[in-house]
Each structure stands twice: as C-alpha cells, then as structure tokens.
Amino acid sequence: MVAAALFLPWPVWLWRRENPALEGLPVAVHRGGKVAALSPLARKLGLREGMALEAARARVESLQLLPYPPRAEEAWKDLLAELHRLTPWVEALGPGVALLRLTPLEARLLAQGYRARVGVAPWREVALLAAWSAPEGEARAVEEAEAFLDRLPLRFLQGVGLTPEGLEKLRLLGLKRVGELRRWRPSQVAAYLREGRQLLPYLFGPWRKEVARFREEERAEAEVLLDPPAEASEGLFRHLARLLARRLAGRAAQRVAVVALAEGLALRGEHLAKEPLREEEGLYLALVAAFRRSGAWGMPLEGVRGEALGLLRPARQEGLFQRQGEGLKALLAHHPGLFLRVEVVDPDALAPEWGFRYHPWEVVNAALPGTGAGLLRGGTAPVGGLQGKEEGGAPPGPLAGGGAVVAPRGRPRPLSAGGAGRAPS
Fold first, then answer.
1. Residue ranges of the UmuC domain (predicted)?
2. How wide is the angle at C-alpha 130 spanned by C-alphas 124 and 132, nearest 5°?
C-alpha cells in the first residue's frame, strides 16, 4: 500500500516537534516581516499567509510569533532519513510531504508518533487526497477509491492544486463533492478551472502505484572517545579533522555535523559550509562551528563524532595537454582515425583521388605544429601534417610516389578540392 504523510505546515510542525508546549496554541511563523506559515488554530482565528506581523498580532492576542527555522531544509533531510528506517521506499514530494510503502497499521503508528496526517491507498494520488482529509495525528485507509472520491468534499482538493477562487467557482455551480466534479469531462474541467489540468490526474487518472526508493545521502564519519571525560580543545578537533580528511578520500563535504556525548546526552550541532570542504583546515573550522551550535561547550565530553555530509566529487580540469602532444596521443589511442595526414602527390592530377593519399597521424613528443613560416626549422610549414615519409593510408593513385609536399616560405601551396576530406570509398 502507498502511504502519504503530511508534516504540514512544515515550519510549524518543526517548531512543535522541538517545543511540544506549542501544541494547542495559535502559531505563526514569520520571515521577512510577513507571516509565512500558520497552524490550523491560527487559520481558524482569521489569519492568513502574507499578513504583516503587526496585523496578525493585533487580530490574535495569544498568537505565538516564531521565526522561520534556520535549518528547516537540513531538518527535512534528517526526517527523511528517519522514515527510511521504517521502509526503503521513501519519496519526498516537497518539504513536509512524503510518500512511503507501509501497511495500514504502520501508517497509523506513524501518524500517532509524528503527529502527522497520513493516507493509505493502493494508488499514490488517492493516498494524497486521503491524507489531506485525515485529522492531525490519524491515518485514513482507503480501499475503494471510487466510493471514497464520490464522498470527498471539494475543499480537500486544495491540497493538490485547487485554488480558493476555483473552489468558489465550483460552489457557485452547486458542487459540493469530488464525485460531482468527476462526472464532468476532463476537457470541461480543464476549460472551466485555470488549475484544471493539474487536477486531472487526481480526478480521472492514470493513478500510479510506484514509490521511489530512498537515496541515502553519502557521508563520512570519524569518532574520538575520551576516557576520562574532558572538555573540548583545539587538539581534539584537529585530530577529528585529520581523520575526516582521510575518510573523504578525494571527495568534498557540503555540511559538517558534530555529535557530542556528554553526561548521558547526545548533543548535535551542524554547520553548512559556504564552499565544499576538502582540506583539513577547512574541516577543522567547520567542526568547531558545528560544535558551538551543539550546546556542549564547557561540558565534560565522553566522546565526539564528526560527520561530513552531502559528499560529492568535485570536477576539475588540470589542462587539456599536460605536455605537448600528450593529450593528442591519448585521443588518437581511443580514436585512431580521427586525424589523418594528407600527402599531396600531384595537385594537377586529372582525377582528384589520384592527386593525394592519406596517412595515419603520428605524434612524436609534440603537439600540432604551427602553420606560420618560421615556426619550424628551415622556415617551412608542412601541408596537412608532420614532415617525414609515411606508409599506409588510402590506396595510392597512379601518379603516387612522391613525399610530403612542403610549401616554400611565404607562398603556401593550396590543397586541391579533393583533399579536404577522407578519400572516397
């Protein structure tokens, strides 16, 4: 079965998880001087996203105004890693919305443990609608999708794209249930509602059963145990950074976390780097910054674990040619026929294929020669390749037999029209 879990509004849910005393209070999360997210109770009291803070505070006296969590994105990744312990199939649709493969009993335990709204159905689209219709902390299981959609109130379509304006347009026509809207043709829904095409998969299908497997974030860890316990020191984090640098093995970390074990507690701090971390010095500074955020400063530590998260392998290009001719030699080893040398036998031949022949290109510790006079010894420039007698290539014509033609200084000799490409077969 497909389970859809809603941890929404995500910043409000995150604040409630860290501070359970906020349960049952009107909560508004603000960012940039505006309300960014609201708890269900605050919405019932008339608050809306985008309101100014002064207006929201004046309307609801007991409103709890909280800043947007600074590490909301990292906390969502951590929650996905927690859900991965329940099932290997975890697919994130956005901050606070995830699809999983769970049984109805497991979905019920998930909803109760995380205070989330969970829907369970054979199809992911139906499971999402069931989750939007479920009360907070409960799971709603759907077996008959057609009957469920016929009874579902239209307002729950707002969770999958229906706008308040679209809901009002449907209510003006007397529609109250999703089943009444499903009696329309898909073309009618798309024409009447601006967001109609977005709603078509939920109303008419095709419904899907697939849930992607969770892709674990690559990480490297290093741990130092202290016996007897001691306070943090520069040498401790220098040693931890040295161990992490070895574990990276050429990779780079985007974030660094520190887990400090002190007085029976596991205190965690995290630091988001401004640039990928590879060197020991950068890792040391990031570890210290993450440790300061853990709240374990000044406590006797029993152990410290450093984590390098978001690993990647930086791409770099030292240069196309490390030495003259080396890059071209490697290229010709993979593609022998990529470059050919043209030997002009007789530019005035009656047939073009009689006037030239091809030879394989050879690199003798040099890159492509220059074409200007004076770049080569004697002031001459070869036509089509390096100087020297070559064997092989295309079959010679009846006038073949000469060596590579060398143009005199200042008077380059043009190739014939047939010498611009590969010899005709």
1. 17-69
2. 110
CA distance 183 to 175: 11
Domains of the chain by start residue, with CATH: 1-216 (no CATH), 219-309 (3.30.1490.100), 325-425 (no CATH)
Phi-psi category of residue 96: left, alpha or beta, with phi > 0 → left and psi -120 to 50 → alpha: left
| Helix, strand, coil shares, percent, the chain, to 5 | 35, 25, 40
Helix/strand/coil for 241? helix
| H helical segments located in 25-177 | 40-44, 53-59, 72-84, 104-114, 124-133, 145-151, 164-172
Q: Categorize the per-residue pLDDT at 388 as very low, low, confident or very high, splitting at 50, 70 and 90.
A: very low
Q: 308, 306, 290, 294: which is closest to 217 by C-alpha?
A: 308
| Distance (Å, whole) CA 188 – CA 78 | 43
Q: Is the pLDDT of residue 3 over 90?
A: yes
- Report d(CA 418, CA 347) in Å as an integer: 9
Asked whether the CA dihedral 404, 410, 415, 421 is positive or negative, the reply is positive
pLDDT digits (tens, 9 = 90+) for 33-78: 899 999 989 989 989 999 998 899 889 888 999 999 888 887 898 8
Check: CB of residue 376 under 8 Å from CB of residue 359: no
Contact 182, 204 (CB under 8 A): yes
2, 104 Cβ separation under 8 angstroms: no
Number of Cβ within 10 Å of residue 216's Cβ equals 11
Q: Is the pLDDT of residue 289 over 90?
A: yes
Alpha carbon distance 118, 108 (integer Å): 8
**Distance, CA of 391 to CA of 235 (rounded, Å):** 67
Least confident span in 17-21, 132-136, 209-213, 388-392 = 388-392
pTM of the model: 0.59
Tell me how far the alpha carbon of residue 357 is from its chain's centroid: 52
Mode of pairing for the β-strands spanning 64-67 and 27-31: parallel
Rounded to the nearest angstrom, the gap between the alpha carbon of residue 146 and the centroid of all alpha carbons in its chain is: 36
DSSP 390: -
Task: Kindly state the average pLDDT of the residues 15-40.
Answer: 90
CA Rg, the chain, in Å?
35
The structure tokens listed for 289 are 């910054």
Peptide bond into 228 cis (omega under 30): yes
Predicted pLDDT at 323: 56
